[in-house]
Amino acid sequence: MADAKLKKAKVIFVLGGPGSGKGTQCEKIVAKYGFNHLSSGDLLRAEVESGSPRGKELQAIMEKGELVSLEIVLALIKDAMLKLVDKSPYFLIDGYPRELEQGTRFEAEVAGCHVVLYFEVTEEVMKQRLLKRGETSGRADDNEDTILQRLRTFTSKTEPVIKHYADKGKVIKVNASGTIDEVFGVVQQEFAKREIK
Ligand SMILES: Nc1nc2c(ncn2[C@@H]2O[C@H](COP(=O)(O)OP(=O)(O)O)[C@@H](O)[C@H]2O)c(=O)[nH]1
Ligand SMILES: Nc1ncnc2c1ncn2[C@@H]1O[C@H](COP(=O)(O)OP(=O)(O)O)[C@@H](O)[C@H]1O
Ligand SMILES: [Mg+2]
């Protein structure tokens, strides 16, 4: 169940397709605002790196560009949040929720959604950025076939999440096709409007 310590958490779900700029923009937000940043993908890759049997299962799913089990990713995020809650009440939860049930379970068991920060950019731009990132990232999922599957997964599973929160008036939609600094400029304007600081 929800942990009392997380009740005061102000959770910003950071969503967008693969290569939309979630990780890059979260780094800039952390540097300026000091918020906590948890990337579901990074937490999962750390589990893979650990060499655990569970890590091997996760790797196989991630290499196919599919979603790993809700229970695993929710537990990883909740545990990580508990370790950071005294640093800042704001949490950038990057790459989660990726399907509707993840959102409802998080809000029932961890904390409510303060706002969704959604980076919108065309599939072509996402694909080009990821192919370029793949040249240096060493990620098993930054290859053309897996990128295409991740894009399909985003469209089928995650876009409904964005609509769910947009229907509640909770989505900050940012056009993420400009330069990194242009996008971050818009993020700062949107945060100021909502007194997120
Ligand atoms: N031109 C441009 N490139 C970006 C921007 N944000 C991220 N990138 C690049 O696109 C790739 C994917 O960015 P990343 O933050 O990892 O996206 P994520 O997959 O959504 O976490 C990286 O190689 C970044 O350098 C942006 O706003 N403009
Ligand atoms: N919330 C989640 N639910 C299920 N699987 C996830 C989740 N977050 C990440 N993953 C898995 O990890 C992979 C990489 O995620 P991530 O690092 O967030 O990608 P990117 O930053 O490129 O959008 C996803 O393709 C998926 O396989
Ligand atoms: Mg990322």
Automatic annotation (TrEMBL):
Please list the GO terms describing molecular function.
AMP kinase activity; ATP binding; dAMP kinase activity; nucleoside diphosphate kinase activity
Q: Where does it localize?
A: Cytoplasm
- GO cellular component annotations of the record: cytoplasm
EC number in record: 2.7.4.3
Reaction(s) catalyzed by this protein? CDP + GTP = CTP + GDP; a ribonucleoside 5'-phosphate + ATP = a ribonucleoside 5'-diphosphate + ADP; dAMP + ATP = dADP + ADP; thiamine diphosphate + ADP = thiamine triphosphate + AMP
Please verify whether the record's keywords include Signal.
no
InterPro entries (alphabetical): Adenylat/UMP-CMP_kin, Adenylat_kinase_CS, P-loop_NTPase
Reading the lineage from the top rank, the first entry is Eukaryota
Q: What is its main location?
A: cytoplasm
Q: Which residues form a coiled coil?
A: none
**Family assignment from sequence similarity:** Belongs to the adenylate kinase family.
The name under which this protein is listed is: Adenylate kinase
Encoded by which gene? KAD
